[in-house]
Specification:
Length: 307
């Protein structure tokens, strides 16, 4: 098959690498977003998908938009049977969707129609969902609204962070894609099933400010925020007049005093216990401004008055 792949971040890499490893499905070309400045020097840096494509000798195209006639011509000239996207980051207009013989498939990191949008992995954890997965859908002009071809579900671990879940879902997406391609060639691919818009939830683009913890909220909710916003943007809060980034924490149901107050004399001497609107948040790892992350035990050893 003549396949073109479109993706940008690390999430899309396993799917691309899997296609590259199969001669019959090796992409003709890769579309990815333009290089962005990164690091202290703000130098332009290849995205993960582009790096894999370049290393594999695959042509790379980086249009700012697919709405122009020039960018559409790039795709049309390749005469693709199928366009596969995974976290590409650009919407595909109707003329582009009509170019490939079999249309355009998208690998999305949720069980659609739940968590349409830019942050499905984070939102699943923030909401306390028991499971999530990958949906392979036939793309239309909406944002993750197309009919679903196949799904693969997985449980969310009770302590799993967004970064850890991301790293499990990316190879699952690759497996689902290969299974769908095999069924397409065998003539056994299921008919795409329309999504129930009434069950849809939205996963908006995350801002750094979203990760600020409000001690008046229940501890269970704050613990999910610590997991859901890790490794980016990382949950943060003010404590004893200092602002910290909180990398690991857990909730316990005991009461502990005024929200935001340290619970001194806590049963577990190796955690920093903070009273919340409901329950206590036990901090296991934190980071003061300008410092490296440390365990709660190390912080308490240096600040015994916090015990």
């Amino acid at each position: 098959m003549r396949i073109v792949f479109a993706g940008t971040p690390a999430f899309a890499v396993p799917a691309l690498e899997t296609l590259i490893g199969r001669d019959a499905w090796r992409p003709l070309a890769v579309f990815t977003q333009p290089d962005r400045p990164a690091g202290r020097g703000r130098k332009l840096k290849f995205g993960p998908v582009k790096q894999v494509a370049v290393d594999s000798g695959i042509d790379v195209f980086q249009p700012n938009s697919l709405k122009t006639s020039e960018s559409r011509a790039l795709l049309s000239d390749l005469q693709p049977d199928l366009l596969v996207t995974a976290a590409y980051g650009l919407l595909l207009p109707a003329p582009v969707l009509e170019v490939p013989l079999h249309g355009c498939w998208n690998l999305h990191a949720s069980l659609l129609p739940r968590w349409r949008g830019a942050s499905p992995i984070n939102q699943a954890i923030l909401a306390g969902d028991d499971q999530t997965g990958i949906s392979l859908m036939q793309m239309d002009q909406g944002l993750d609204t197309g009919p679903v071809i196949m799904k693969a579900a997985t449980a969310i671990g009770p302590d799993e962070t967004a970064g850890e879940l991301h790293d499990r879902l990316a190879p699952l997406a690759a497996e689902l894609l290969i299974g769908a391609l095999e069924r397409l060639q065998a003539g056994t691919l299921p008919e795409p099933e329309a999504q129930d818009d009434g069950l849809a939830t939205h996963a908006p683009l995350i801002q750094k400010a979203d990760a600020r913890l409000d001690w008046h909220r229940p501890a269970a909710e704050l613990a999910r925020m610590v997991r859901g916003y890790h490794p980016w943007p990382v949950a943060f809060a003010e404590l004893e007049g200092f602002e910290f980034r909180i990398h690991r924490a857990r909730a316990v149901s005991r009461s502990g005093g005024a929200p935001g107050a340290l619970v001194r004399g806590h049963a577990d001497r190796d955690v920093i216990a903070v009273a919340c609107g409901e329950g206590i948040l036990e901090i296991l790892e934190l980071q003061a401004a300008g410092r490296k992350p440390v365990t709660a035990r190390d912080w308490l050893n240096a600040h015994p008055d916090w015990r």
